[in-house]
Amino acid sequence: MSVRNGLLALLAERPMYGYQLRAEFETRTGSTWPLNIGQVYTTLRRLERDGLVTGDRAPSRADAAAPDTPAAEGPAAEGPAASAAARAMPVTGTPAARTAVMSPEHGGDSGDGRGIVYRLTAAGEAAAQRWWVTPVSRRMAGRDELAIKLALAVTLPEVDVRSLVQRQRVETLRAMQEYTRLRHQADDSADLAWLLVLENLIFTAEAEIRWLDHVELRLTRRGLGAPPGTDREDNR
After folding, report:
1. 102 in a domain, yes or no?
2. Considering only CA atoms, which of 25, 32, 27 is closest in space to residue 11?
3. Are residues 107 and 114 in contact, defined by beta-carbon separation less than 8 angstroms?
4. Does residue 58 belong to any structural domain of this protein?
5. Among residues 133, 163, 191, which one ends one of the domains?
């Protein structure tokens, strides 16, 4: 849902090509959640199917260059596709993001939905506004791989759950230290979107470490994942 709603929010600003949406999404979220260009176009097709966006194919380079086409003779092409293309947002963001967008990976103006300028319908505008005023629900949390991994591990005698927890703690601590290093390098005048995302990652890592400490304590109390030679009954 975050990608779907994120694309709607960006299109509420102005029409864009799919590769521009990808670049804007990554730039504005600090490139923390890279998007596959295929995922972007798949999501756009679903939004179009649901009546939330429409797509206008922009004139191809070959059409624009052809000497016998009306578009080449006049100062500007006419029609919905051309007007939508004229309003398409130029790529912004960091030099790295611009370089990534201009690489062949983004698909350019080739087929299968690429080279299309997307815009919101009235229903799409309403959906974007609804997202801003609707709190994110935590009651139906998405699948958490670590929680699922540990939940399964405690049911399987052959899995060393304590080692699993310890390895995960080391990895999460390493990530938190890296995020903290990046935060210290940035001053308060840095891009606000990047700071918000970075601080969210730090707080999330801190919470995960506390949760892992709690998991290890529960394992000890239940006598699960106890070190070799430890009496399980003594750990209850």
Report:
1. yes
2. 25
3. yes
4. yes
5. 133
In a domain, 235, yes or no: no
Contact between 182 and 193 under an 8 Å Cβ cutoff? The reply is no
Could you tell me the CATH number of the domain that includes residue 87?
1.10.10.10
Which residue's entry shows tokens 């370089």? 99
**Residues 36 and 115 occupy one common structural domain:** yes
Instruction: Please name the amino acid found at residue 71.
Output: A
C-alpha 163/C-alpha 51 separation (Å) is 50
Domain with 35, as residue range(s), is: 2-133
3-state class (DSSP) for residue 31 = coil
**pTM tops 0.70, yes or no:** no
Distance CA 11, CA 197 (A): 21
Q: Which amino acid is at 207?
A: A
Query: 179 and 201 in contact (C-beta within 8 Å)?
Result: yes
Task: Identify the band that residue 73 occupies on the pLDDT scale cut at 50, 70 and 90.
Answer: very low
Instruction: Render pLDDT for 157-187 as a digit per residue (tens, 0 to 9).
Output: 999 999 999 999 999 999 999 999 999 888 7
pLDDT tens digits along 203-219:
999 999 999 999 999 99
The reply to whether 24 falls in a domain is: yes
Structure tokens at 215: 């998991």
Please check whether residues 114 and 204 belong to one and the same domain: no
Residues in the chain: 236
39: number of CA atoms within 13 Å, CB side? 13
- CA dist., res. 196 & res. 32, Å (int): 11
